[in-house]
Design a protein that fits this description.
The structure holds 3 protein chains of 3 kinds.
Chain A: H1 4-7, H2 11-26, H3 31-56, E1 64-73, E2 76-84, H4 86-109, H5 116-135, H6 139-157, H7 164-195, H8 210-216, H9 219-234, H10 243-246, H11 252-261, H12 265-273, H13 275-278, H14 288-309, H15 314-334, H16 338-365, H17 378-381, H18 383-397, H19 404-417, H20 424-448, H21 464-480, H22 490-496, H23 510-529, H24 538-542, H25 544-551, H26 556-628, H27 635-656
Antiparallel strand pairs in A: 1-2
Chain B: H1 3-25, H2 29-53, H3 61-91
Chain C: H1 5-23, H2 27-47, H3 51-76, H4 88-107, H5 122-130, H6 134-155
Helix pairs in contact in C: 1-2, 2-3
Classes of the chains: A mainly alpha, B mainly alpha, C mainly alpha.
Amino acid sequence: MTPWIVSHLFLIPAVPLLAAFLIVAMGRARRAAAASVAIAGQVIAFSLAVCAFLPTLSAPGWRACSNFVWFTFGDIPLRIGWLLDPLGAAMLLMITFVSVCIFVFSTGYMAEEVNFTRFFAYLSFFSAAMLGVVIANSLLTLFICWELVGLASYLLIGFYIERPAAAAAAKKAFITTRIGDAGLFLGILWLYSRAGTLLFYDHGHGCIEPAALAALGGAGTFIALLIFCGAMGKSGQFPLHVWLPDAMEGPTPVSALIHAATMVAAGVFLVARMYPLFSFGAVNGITPALEVVVWIGVITSLMAAFLALGQSEIKRILAYSTVSQLGLMMVSLGVGGLAAGIMHLISHGFFKALLFLGSGSVIHGCHHEQDIREMGGLRRKMPLTFAVYAIGMMALSGVPLLFAGAWTKEAILDATHRWPVSAAPYYLLVAGVFLTALYMTRQMIYVFFGTPRKAAEHAHESPAALTVPLVALASCTLLFSLVLTPAWPWLEKYLTGEKASLNPALLIQPGLFTALLVVAAGIISGAWFYRRAGRTDPLETAAPALYRSFERRFWIDELYAHTILKWSAFAARAAALLDRYVWDGAVRGIARIARGVAEFSVNCDERAVNRCVDRGCDATRRFGSKVGGWHSGQIQSYLRALGIGALALFLLYAWLA
Amino acid sequence: MNGTLAAVLAVSMVLFSLGLLAALSRRDAIFMLIGIEMMLAAGNLNLVAFWRYGPQPELLTGAMMALFAMAIAAGETAVGLALVLAVYRHRRTTQVEKLNTLKG
Amino acid sequence: MNPGIPFILIAALTLSGALAAAILPNLVHAALSLVLAFVGLAAFYFLLGAEFIGLVQVIVYIGAVAVLIVFTILLTRPAVAQRGDLNWGGVLVAIAVMSGLLWALARTALPANATAAAPMTVMRVGQTLMGDYVWPLQTVGIVLTAALIGAVVLVMEEDR
């Protein structure tokens, strides 16, 4: 007996979508109404998500899907459906909750914005698309919503459309993710041609259920890698990570919602959703596809952590930390720690949204200054923001015991440690954890400690619309750790489909000391190294070349500009030349021949055909004028004719019968 | 020809023909409308008669049809008479023989 | 069963009214004869057991249609002598149609007796209208509204 909510899961994205259309229909003058509609839509979606969450608690590993025929193509029915399982339910809760917080935050943060209503319409639209990704039980619906998410991201990054940088960033994000999506699309086509269905679960006939996977054979690895391309694009994995830091050109709530908490998590979610495909035929938990996932994740995680050290814009630092954390999640999925990765995804959603909104509060307080070198000493001027930001920072750095991020990060490290292929990812991730603590300490010192520099002199605490969501997210970050600890690993068991039991003795794990050591080292060394933080970065004085390479993001953008972009420009020019001279010449030649034929046929027409037609026309005209005479304009004579005709028909019928 | 049904049908046919006569042979547009009304009424009489003598009178089918036809006939009269008034206002006549602008 | 005396009386009333309406030269007289024909029709409906339809016939045809026709006659007709001549071509066609119809009727076998059925009460009519026929009913409502608006638009004074 499937609960009511399973077949009505579509309501969860439908409500925000409706809200988006409503806001667009209301016009741009009704600002308060637009915000209320958007928030109400989110709150309804959240309540529905809770309704969807409850049945998944009923039994470990509970899963239900509701499939139906969308349309029939020839005689091939195309079936789609909705899927509810612990993974999806947890994602739904996280997305809707974070969305509510961010929507409320936006009412304060965007209060001065001219296109206020448009912003809320876009936000609601985004939320609808993202929820659609989560509930889809078909790779096709998932892909459709996935692209809608991309569109919403494009619209929102380029929200300040009058700024060239924002427009360029929007294009960059769209095109870069599109490269990944091309791979994803190929993967979908290939999978469909092999499995004959795109439904995930269909009572044993779905495309990621054992029967279909066994039929895939060797192609499975390649399909998985193609699908991973899409995940790489969306989740900003190396080498497609370049768009994510630029996406910070969008408004801060957008950065929080899309480019930190939810959309970029879609890639991780996709890999988790397709996990049976990635891990099929695993020997000892290793498949070629998963190995690729691990190494890409490791590279991304470490590289982004380094780059974060060289950034001076508050949101960009957070953006690189997002890239780094996403890499961490990918590693976790790759080494088999599916639950750990998703747990980190969800807790990351909370604390990264918190950090971004906190940075939004800082930016708001500093009159839209985003450079951390212009801030400083804000802990006295914005005490509440400082407190929640510190919570977020400690959660991100992984300070053990209290904070959600710590437990999940520890779980990932633990899973990586047990990976049989190589020990290198473990040590590299530990280095990444150290770096994370280091750059977050750097940011904290620059923003909140020391003496106020230019922009921070007139800073003020933000209004309630900004701080209430911050406090809500902060308390969530703290409380969420209750279900993550090894002593009561409720969420992990919920995701893996087992029953959790309380065992306080497991609270203290050897990994805990490692984590404590590494994080403490990161924070202490950071505090010492950046104790004299000023206009010039201490690292810049100590090692200028290194700092420069971080600041310039390892010149990866320049590398792309000088290789791929240049090559494609060259190819375009070559194609233009080919077009202009070779193809155009051929086309002109054909045109000349065609014109000769045409002239000949014009002659034939005028001499032969026209004369016949003219004669026919004359005959028709004469006949017409004769027949037209019958039309007397007397309506009753027409009626009489009608009566005679009816009578004639009647007599004919009688005679035949 | 025997029985009430046949008699009713005969009456309705004569009524219909009288309506047709009015519509076909009178020179005034208002007479044409009167004729059309009579024809419609004859049709209604047919419907009710066949309903009464049909196999399933408890379904009320023919009677309902007659009701709807009456409603439509009322609307038709209103529009038709409005047309006559509009024509009269322009041409100062309701003689259909003079309304022959659409002559071929 | 042959038609009884009331039937013959009603038929005579209806047909003579209709005949007068069709051939009387004076329009006002014709309209009043039409009322007579409609009264006869209503009586037919009563005779056939469709009392409700008979009442509707009285209300709609006599109360509305005939009155409308009289109104129009008065609005369009200055007191001018009527040319009462008939178009004999039309008369011939009408007679031909009538004879064709009657001939067909004579050749057709018809059930002689009415099937027994529950009387057509207003309650049943209402239930049927609101049940099976609710969509036609709504549609007729829309048609009538459209006709109303159309009639008003047609006779409105044009702006010059």
